[in-house]
Specification:
about 220 residues, alpha/beta, Rossmann fold, 9 helices, 8 strands, binds adenosine monophosphate
Length: about 220
């Protein structure tokens, strides 16, 4: 592929963040995570952040107009010219349509959608035990991926914390929201013939190998 205009799709907890860091490193494209951008806005106390926090804490989606605006602005940055990896966007059909329209104006199109599939009960276990580094966002897990020192990031020494929306009630709502609003996107992109499905129950290294096979060599 001459351009890597990629979308990473999958339920919360499927390992999108972990796989995203590897993909962007190998394919040299920017990582566009609407969740990270929104959490940044919440942390900085911007008007958009204050508005978004209500939805995020409940496990609901932030309104389409807000996230579509964020992504359109981001696509104006020159680092996206060779490609990008969308992580956590689009999450609704109107978002996918807005993304297609924005890319069309730039004479571009999504050329691969990687879908990571994981069983729902596994996702609840993964998410409710998840801890994330405040500084570098590296993910850990209280059972499955413990840091060497409790509460401290192995990679950068930052403080590990539990996201406000990783409690079980919110997690169940996020999964229901995914099923209802985001899963239909698999069909949407299937129609365009760009979907690659990978089994997210495998170990992270094996999941990544499957993703590489689907994407083909970097720079080809
Ligand atoms: P994430 O880090 O991708 O799990 O996103 C965390 C939360 O941010 C979600 O539960 C939503 O409330 C909000 N969010 C992130 N991306 C989107 C999006 N594309 N559309 C609507 N809400 C989003």
């Amino acid at each position: 592929m001459s351009q890597f205009n990629l979308v990473l799709l999958g339920p919360p907890g499927a390992g999108k963040g972990t796989q995203a860091s590897r993909i962007v490193a190998e394919y040299a494209i920017p990582h566009i995570s609407t969740g990270d951008i929104l959490r940044g806005a919440v942390k900085n106390g911007t008007a958009m952040g204050l508005e978004a926090k209500k939805y995020m804490d409940a496990g609901d989606l932030v309104p389409d107009s807000v996230v579509i605006g964020i992504v359109k602005d981001r696509l104006q940055e020159p680092d996206t010219a060779k490609g990008f990896l969308m992580d956590g966007f689009p999450r609704t059909i109107p978002q996918a349509e807005a993304l297609d329209a924005a890319l069309d104006e730039l004479d571009r199109a999504i050329n691969k959608v990687v879908v990571i599939l994981v069983d729902e009960e596994d996702l609840v276990k993964r998410l409710s035990g998840r801890r994330v580094c405040r500084t570098c966002q590296a993910p850990f897990h209280v059972m499955f991926n413990q840091p060497k020192v409790e509460g401290v990031c192995d990679k950068c020494g930052g403080e590990l914390y539990q996201r406000d929306d990783d409690n079980e009630t919110t997690v169940r709502n996020r999964l229901a929201t995914y099923r209802k609003q985001t899963e239909p996107l698999i069909d949407y992109y299937d129609k365009a013939g760009v979907v690659a499905r990978v089994d997210g129950a495998k170990a992270p290294d094996d999941v990544y190998e499957d993703i590489r096979m689907a994407l083909g060599p970097a720079g080809a």
